[in-house]
Amino acid sequence: MSESAARGARSPRAPSGTLVLGLGTPLMADDGVGLEALEALRSGWSFSPPVELVDGGTWGMNLLGLIEDAERLLLLDAIHAGRPAGSLVVLRGEELPRYLFTKVSPHQIDLREVLALAEFRGRLPADTVAIGLQPERIEMAPELSPIVRDTLPTLVAAAVATLRSWGHRAVRITSDDRTPERAERVRAG
Fold it and tell me: What is the DSSP string of 99-110?
């Protein structure tokens, strides 16, 4: 099978830099923590060079193209690691549960398959990190549990630290920076 056939009909694109995927669903209590962290990055930080911030929700295999086109991949999610609720969990490289039968989140089967396929095709970013919080509860509820909500800043800080370690300048956006003129100056760095 040719390399282009292995990639499907999609033509190869140049890597797009750093991709940050927020995962989960806000309808399932703490499972929405990845999306909350993504929104905190989107509304509270400016990055140079820019990072691609994507709501991956529970898209599963539809994320394959985005993942394969990235140079670096940061996943934000609720991660079941058997730790106390609200604990920060960081998984790198071989620690990622691509081949485990234990789910780290309710939608992880799809993500595990996506990561395994990207790796099989030789297109999984070498720098792939999952950062999340141990959930207290995953049930039909539209809000995070208090312990996970209180530790959300720890998750955001760990994501910012990872992005900085990958060479991104991270600047906190203040409420004054949200005016169009100030926001443009912050982006210009």
Answer: T-SS-SSTTHHH
